[in-house]
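User: Okay, second chain of the day. Same drill as before: sequence in, structure tokens out.
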Amino acid sequence: MSDDNLLEQYLDRPVRVHFAPGMLGPGLAAYIEGKLFDYDDEAIMLEEKDGSLAYIPVSAVRMVQIKPRAGLWERLIGSGN
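Assistant: Same drill. Structure tokens below.
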């Protein structure tokens, strides 16, 4: 798999973006959660729960955690994301 389309298969999936240590400060959250909306070489865009879009420069990102897809049982009973 090439790095060019690394996140392509995760569009519309819940993710948690952790900020780089240099981007943290007093009163600022260490991460943001949302649905992966779009990305390119310069930034990641997340759709937050309220429907707003968060533009996060790649230089501010330490790590992106991708939540697993709900299993069959979770989808059947509706407890998955």
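The two ends are 26 Å apart (CA to CA).

User: Thanks, on to the next one.
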